[in-house]
Amino acid sequence: MERVAKEQLYGCRMCGQCALPDTGYTCPMTCPKQLRNGPCGGVAADGRCEVHPDLVCVWVTAIERGQAAGHGADLDLLQRPVDHREWDRSSWVNYWQGRDDGLGVAYSEDDPRPLLRRELGLSPR
Ligand code: SF4
Q: Which protein residue's CA is at the shortest distance from atom 1 of ligand 1?
């Protein structure tokens, strides 16, 4: 059910760890580079994707949608790296079972460790 609904609405790829609520309901996995924390350096001045110039960068769309909905600050959250073991699993089930807790984490100036090191409780390098 999730696959059918979200594929139609958002182009969902079933990564199993849904970032939609933090990205203005724009699926970051539709980015050809699958970037989850903002655009690459190749986005054109007019907002077009460098890989598929016929398309608008998904992050331009995400920012526009997020801001229009009054949730622009959600785009500041750091998304943890994709866990590739979760592909083709339901993000809805993962959510309800608490497996995607902390998917988007606020950056802390008090604790500037890279997100993964913070999550693993490792010291800064
Ligand atoms: S589950 Fe993953 S692939 Fe599907 S919409 Fe959410 S972020 Fe995109």
A: 18
